[in-house]
Design goal:
CATH class of the largest domain: Alpha Beta
Helix content: 25-40%
CATH architecture of the largest domain: Alpha-Beta Complex
CATH topology of the largest domain: DHBP synthase
Structural class: alpha/beta
Strand content: 15-25%
Radius of gyration: 19 Å
Bound molecules: threonylcarbamoyladenylate, magnesium ion
Amino acid sequence: MNTQFLDSYSIQQAAELLQRGATVVFPTETVYGVGANAFDEQAVRKIFQAKGRPSDNPLIVHVSGIEMALRAAAEVPTPARMLMDRFWPGPLTLVLPRSAEIAPSVTAGLATVGLRWPRHELCQKLLELAGVPVAAPSANRSGRPSPTTFEAACFEMAGRVAAILRGPPCQVGLESTVVGFEGENVVIYRPGAVTREELEHVLGCPVRLVSNRDVAASPGLLHRHYQPNLPVKIYEAPEQAAPVSGEWIIGPPDCRGPWPGRFILIADIEDYAHRLYSLFREAEAAGVSGLWCWLPPARGLGQALRDRLLRASGKRP
Ligand code: TXA
Ligand code: MG
């Protein structure tokens, strides 16, 4: 497929491609997504093809405001409404009963749909111009790390989609928090930039992170994920790390080493999230034989980093 590379001046063209049933890669505040009109079954199928994504893994639908979300969902429970009011637009996906208008492939046969109103200016403009909800998973080939820069999105998707829209590097760098509503309970299917602590603060009740033993409601969690083409090894304390020459190691200042290979210093947890997938790609391109990654404590954004790092290293969180 002949891919067009577009910048913000050509945003109208990108919106028209979406309206005509084509696939467009675009930036969001979390990661780049590969999108298509969520009401158009034929268009949505092109996303699965471009990614090589298993058809049992549902897609997140991006909306341009609460009004459009109310059209895509059949029902919005009170806690979901509270979270929309507080965290939208932002890196939070809410899993709600789906409206009949959503194309069947989007939800992989589930009765629910994941909805998100992104905080990214260019992305918001694109969604407004398109005027339809846009189904968009991360713009990586299935199983690989999500792209967080235009260059990474091109590396993953050039030749597979109609267009790629250029934006600056994604601010957050990790995918959105995915939240579901099960009876009286609010649960996290995938930790992300909106933290469990923040959700609990707004809702005034405990929010559970569902484990891998209990993911029938979010089938995507069972698949291979976030893995670069090199071994990712994890450590919590410096004495657990043993990089050999030819391997790189990422960590905070107190894990500085000396080590035989390159040490990559992360300033804080936001910096780590922002850079993780780019570092995966940089290490891949440099032909590094292994990448040691520090596993941060399980609080705040650390929860999402732990989830991605454990999966990237082939473990189940
Ligand atoms: O930040 C993000 O969320 C990015 C950007 C592009 O918005 N998108 C993204 O999409 O990461 P994707 O497809 O790579 O991840 C979607 C996650 C999967 O874990 C999937 O299982 C879950 O959301 N999901 C989507 N719809 C769901 C549903 N109806 N029920 C449960 N889980 C759902
Ligand atoms: Mg993904």
